[in-house]
Design brief:
six-stranded antiparallel sheet; about 40% helix; alpha+beta; Cell Division Protein Zipa, Chain: A; 14 strands
């Protein structure tokens, strides 16, 4: 190769380097000008303006993407949800993911999980970058989750079969996202469930009075009498409500909820005070008995106790004291009557 050829090659290399250098300098100058015209902002102009703060009401922890969260939860919100595991009444399986899992994928894997047998299951998740979630939110990813199952309720303690069912579900989720899981041994779980169930059996109590009608009356007529007296519809129940917005006692027609009565008429109405699920009251029985006597007069019925005997006028205060002692025993055991946590256990 001649000296002329070598010189031309070197000149070509130099020219290419000069062009690349000029392009780099030009690109940097343009970027600086654009930054001066469009300063940094919190919201991405391609995604629209940042959403204004939205007031939220407290929601129960549960599975899946809540409708409110889907509609208004801004991406990147790191505020923790208020719900959390209750270590006294629940047992937990922890699942850690190998990679952060998008909320849509985790929702698809968990939205159908509600119960293990007769025991409700709650889900909690930890957001990538921090944040405790009791509801999955859109446009987030999660690094771990917990499945919390109730140890006992009025259906009895958590059984080996129910625990195995939840463990199998957790294994499926861990395998789906290449994760790992951790939880207590089955024998430990079952023993804890039995102890809690035994405690609850000692604390649980229901008291009732019955209105024995002289004959069958149309359900609609009886319903109207109760509503005129002050009973309100509360979900599926017909309830005498407290100031706290939860039932003091509820009505049953021939042993059934009013909406579940199969016949067109009834001849018996029961008023039931579910003690763990009603607010503590030092006049719990006398309030219910007073309403019962008023209804008995309107329905020409006889007011009976849960043994089928007429309710005597002098028993109200004595039963009030006994029930109030039961309320105190519940509170001393860590379960405030009428509270959401207590309601989960006594359901």
């Amino acid at each position: 190769m001649s000296d002329l050829q070598i010189g031309l090659i070197l000149l070509g290399v130099v020219l290419i380097l000069l062009v690349l250098l000029f392009n780099w300098w030009q690109d940097r100058r343009v970027r600086r000008q654009m930054q001066e015209q469009f300063p940094d902002r919190e919201d991405d102009p391609l995604l629209g303006a940042a959403a204004p703060p939205v007031a939220r009401t407290r929601r129960e922890p549960g599975f899946g993407m809540s409708s409110a969260a889907t509609a208004d939860a801004p991406s990147g919100d790191t505020d923790d949800d208020p719900g959390e595991v209750d270590p006294t009444t629940e047992v937990v399986i922890d699942i850690a993911f190998a990679q952060p899992v998008p909320s849509e994928q985790l929702h698809a894997a968990t939205h159908s999980i509600r119960r293990a047998g007769t025991k409700p299951v709650r889900m909690f998740a930890e957001r990538e970058g921090g944040g405790h979630r009791a509801h999955l939110r859109p446009n987030e990813a999660y690094v771990s989750m917990q499945l919390a199952v109730l140890l006992a309720n009025r259906n009895g303690p958590l059984s080996e079969i129910e625990w195995s069912e939840l463990w199998t579900v957790a294994q499926g989720i861990a395998e789906r996202f290449d994760g790992s899981m951790e939880g207590p041994e089955q024998n430990e779980v079952v023993e804890r469930a039995r102890r809690l169930d035994a405690l609850c059996a000692e604390l649980d109590a229901m008291v009732g009075v019955a209105l024995q009608l002289p004959g069958a009356r149309p359900v609609a007529d009886v319903m109207r009498v109760l509503e005129d007296a002050g009973f309100l519809r509360h979900g599926k129940q017909l309830a005498w409500m407290s100031e706290q917005g939860i039932p003091r006692f509820t009505a049953l027609f021939n042993g059934r909820l009013p909406g579940e009565v199969q016949s067109a008429s009834v001849d018996r109405v029961e008023l039931v005070l579910d003690l763990p699920n009603s607010p503590a009251d030092d006049q719990a029985f006398s309030r219910m008995a007073s309403v019962g006597r008023h209804l008995a007069a309107g329905l020409d019925a006889q007011l009976l106790d849960d043994q089928g005997r007429p309710v005597a006028d002098g028993v109200d205060q004595a039963l009030d004291r006994q029930l109030y002692e039961r309320y105190a025993l519940l509170a001393d055991s860590g379960f405030e009557a009428g509270q959401e946590r207590t309601a989960r256990l006594f359901s």
